[in-house]
Write a structure and sequence with these properties.
This protein has 305 residues and is of the alpha+beta class. Helix content is 43%, strand content 21%. The strands form three sheets. The protein has a five-stranded antiparallel sheet with strand order 1-3-4-10-6. It holds the Pfam family HTH_18. One of its GO terms (molecular function) is DNA-binding transcription factor activity.
Length: 305
């Protein structure tokens, strides 16, 4: 479900965002104009907030929720609390703390609001210790921010149940990966008993066995018998990339193989079979990897076949 709201008053704007308690103070002159586009993704809230004037935020997530905020343009948001010492990081924002920020004019911010039990459950499934979750400082890639913007834009045309579930899983996997990366070292030698190559081999085999379109970090961790933190370290050492990237690359290769099959008649259907629901993004990634568009692959089979 997507909700689009427009406000002509800064106090009205402060009340538009679900799962947050906020106070806004307008800090620069001008007739206020603000918008919120918010989409429900399997119980979590994903929003994009834009305001034309400088605003001082005083905010805290509601009880039972955690939040993450990411400016589309980093220069448009300045933290006024202890977060200013971590310009390249975000934090897991919780109900028991108050957060201060100052936007510049024409700000554009993406806000993730996640039920804390949903996040804890996902981390538990991936064997990630959720105990210190609330103290984590995390770094999320620009790809993740772009993915959030894509989900919001796609939701304008409606997200079906399958797409929403895939988006929720991807978002939670990004968060879990960031939580793992927040720790410079593995939890300890005792957590690293499994052989690196064996863990990676089992994880990859499980992804293929369950079907790449349905595979997830959870199934890979379960098959390898190690936590996500350990699996990430193993993949980085053995494959040179984290498991979430390997899975995406494997899916792209599977799509290419399917497109070269003479029985295949639809790029769209094949892409969706492997959990690529944004065709523009899929096509760009496919072309970057294989130096040809998906439809070119289909066209060439007629020549080479």
């Amino acid at each position: 479900m997507l909700r689009h709201s427009v406000a002509a008053d800064v106090m009205e704007q402060a009340g538009l965002l679900s799962a947050w308690e906020q106070t806004y103070t307008q800090m620069s002159p001008g007739r206020f104009e603000g918008t919120i586009v918010e989409v429900d993704v399997g119980g979590m809230k994903l929003a994009r907030e834009r305001m034309n004037v400088s605003v001082h935020h005083v905010a805290t997530p509601m009880d039972g929720w955690v939040g993450f905020t990411f400016p589309v343009d980093r220069d448009k948001l300045r933290y006024l609390d202890w977060r200013h010492r971590m310009p390249s990081k975000s934090v897991v924002m919780t109900h028991d703390k108050i957060y201060h920020g100052l936007t510049t004019q024409d700000s554009d911010v993406v806000i993730y609001s996640v039920p804390i039990e949903l996040l804890r459950s996902h981390l538990h499934d991936l064997k990630v210790d959720a105990g210190p979750l609330l103290q984590h400082q995390i770094v999320l890639s620009s790809d993740f921010i772009e993915y959030g913007l894509w989900v919001i834009d796609t939701a304008k045309d409606g997200l079906d149940t399958q797409s929403a579930a895939a988006a929720q899983s991807t978002i939670l996997d990004y968060f879990a990966t960031a939580v793992c990366n927040a720790d410079a070292l593995l939890a300890g030698a005792s957590s690293w008993r499994a052989d690196r190559q064996t863990a990676v081999t089992k994880a990859c085999a499980s992804a293929y066995a369950s079907g790449l379109g349905d595979a997830s970090l959870s199934t890979m961790c379960e098959a390898s018998g190690v936590s996500l933190r350990v699996l990430q370290q193993a993949f980085k050492e053995v494959m040179g990339m984290p498991p979430i990237k390997w899975l995406r690359m494997a899916r792209l290769n599977a799509v290419r193989q399917a497109l070269r099959d003479r029985t295949c008649s639809s790029v769209t259907q094949v892409a969706m079979d492997y959990s690529f629901y944004h065709l523009g993004r899929f096509s760009a990634e496919y072309k970057k990897l294989f130096h040809e568009a998906p439809n070119w692959t289909m066209a060439r089979r007629a020549i080479t076949g």
